[in-house]
Amino acid sequence: MKLPTTEDRDPLSIGLNNKSDNDVLTLLLDRQRAALDAVGDAIAQISKAANALQRASQANGMIGYAGAGSAGLTALADCLELPGTFGFPPERMRMLYAGGAENLLHLAGTFEDDEEVGRTDFQTSGLGEGDILIAVSASGSTPYTLGTFRAAQAAGTETIALCNNPDTPLLDLADHPILLKTPPEIIAGSTRLGAASAQKAALNMISTLVALRLGHAVRGHMVNLVADNEKLRLRAQRILQDLTGCTAEIAMHTLLKADGRVKVAALMILRSLDKAAAERVLAENNGNLRPFL
């Protein structure tokens, strides 16, 4: 019986114990690079998925993620990182993880086998028409994740799937399927290696492209961040100085007035506005700072 690629064994894994540490590590790195090549082959699919996510974001739709095991952890990382990096509203983010938060420390595998739980998790998530659900599944056939997609389909929620095996149920169900055809893993079935690297790269590319199109990333800066700790305050100060040419003192003083919001502070400096006026002008331009730079 022919195994799925994600369960097959890489022929190069034979005899690893007889190789030096440096040779083993070099091989592992080479196979990571080979996995990333699969992302390049999926650029057109990734672009379509990013366009769908942008549309949902501009319509104030919710963004959901679904997954189980290590693929679910990759999805979870993206879900948690978007608010801090690009200012996606946390209240519009949803994470559907097999077994819930209680399963994050132990990753018990039984939870991913229940399609009905996936359906139920979707139904209680609040996702619906006008929203989007992004699922990550190396196998493309995880029952829990399939359950979330079948419920999403019934609810009119748009779907994006990232999978590493071709011709799989999740890709068939998805409105926007992304096949990341990575080679077999050095440790057969351990998809937290090459497959996960490809998944993470694709998710990073999707969110970064959307952030650029929405004006959340400008001139190489994450201008939609809210500076709520010392590291971010210093970063926000540097961003303001670069975008407006102001001094460090003016940048920090204006950030305080703007409650740490870089875009608002930038408009206050560039157009000599108070906070309320800057907020109004920003809203009139869909939160995009570019027209004022």
From TrEMBL:
Transmembrane segments: none annotated. Signal peptide: none annotated. Keywords: Carbohydrate metabolism, Lyase. Residues 49-216 form the SIS domain. It holds the Pfam family SIS_2. InterPro entries: Etherase_MurQ (IPR005488), MURQ/GCKR (IPR040190), SIS_dom (IPR001347), SIS_dom_sf (IPR046348). NCBIfam families: PRK05441.1 (NF003915). This is N-acetylmuramic acid 6-phosphate etherase. It comes from Roseibium sediminicola.
